[in-house]
Design a protein that fits this description.
The chain contains four helices and 19 strands. With about 350 residues, it is α+β, with helices and mostly antiparallel strands. The strands form five sheets. Strands 6-5-4-2-12-11-10-8 form an eight-stranded antiparallel beta sheet. Strands 1, 14, 16, 17 and 18 form a five-stranded antiparallel beta sheet that branches. Strand 16 and strand 17 form a beta hairpin. The longest helix is centred in the N-terminal third of the chain and has 25 residues. The protein starts with a helix and ends in an 8-residue tail after the last strand.
Amino acid sequence: MTRMSRFWITIGVAAVVGLAVVAAAVAMRDGGDTPVSSTPGGNEPVPANAAPLHEARLDLAQRLGVPAKDAALLHARHAGFDGCLGVYHPDTACTEQFLGGYIAVYKAGSAEYRYHFGGGRFVAASFASSARIDDGMPVEAALRADFGALFAGYARHDAALRTGTPVEQLVVTAIVPVVFPDGCLGFYRPDVMCDMAISPGVIVLLAGPGGEEYRYHAGGASDQWTLVAVSFETGTVQTQPDAGLVARQLAVREDLAGRLGVHVGTVSVTQYREVTWPDGCLGIVEEGRVCTAALVDGWLMRVAAGGTEYRYHGGSGDAFRAASFVPGAELRDPLPREE
């Protein structure tokens, strides 16, 4: 072998080693969970009924023969049902399985209309003229619907109706948990009185295709949430979202956009909530990996792009793991938190 041949072999080996070092450094940013293929095993199709509060709004508008924007959500509260979802028709049998659901009330014109949700479906209770209507039962934390995600989905469609923008071109950029100081949800409008009850809720931030920004506040005390379309009403904003949580959710959206090779403006947040993981592995079980047994406070986030939803698991800070991209991992849900 000539001296020149040995020189080029040495250069080639060094280049390969250098690339390996760079790849390892990139993988270490989020725990070394870079996907081994473009089809990660933990991804999930976006549910067909991803925005049930909006679907019920469309149902109401169709029944009344009015535009969807003329039917609006007033409030929703948790409720538990059997298989009949609290709407009992004569001579109709109901399954006895307990379903954690909720009741939503809409307004169109001067009238209010009631819908019951549970088990992935809804019933237009106000239109069941021959049925007995029940208010449902209390729901423990483990079976409660995530109102933050539900109201964010409704807000996205509401903004589409208000602006005339196709909903596919609107993305939820952040769902930020907050505690509002009163029943006005941190947004004070002329001639609107506020009750003094502290109200947990979320601030929902959205973006349009041209960089337009929209904002909604959702929350409420006594287990009943309402929604304020802040960007479309006259008033003064007093409660701001935590800038760190907004940045955290942007980092997750950017991570997914980079993995999929898409623009971050096409990645939408479908869920963000603070949780307790059962162990130090943050609900990501990998063969051969030992996890500490202590409970870990953290967060769960779901983001969607191209009709597919992906999970991200985080601990007490901003570091996260792209759970849907961990090869061969079993993804576990967090422990329920008492409210």
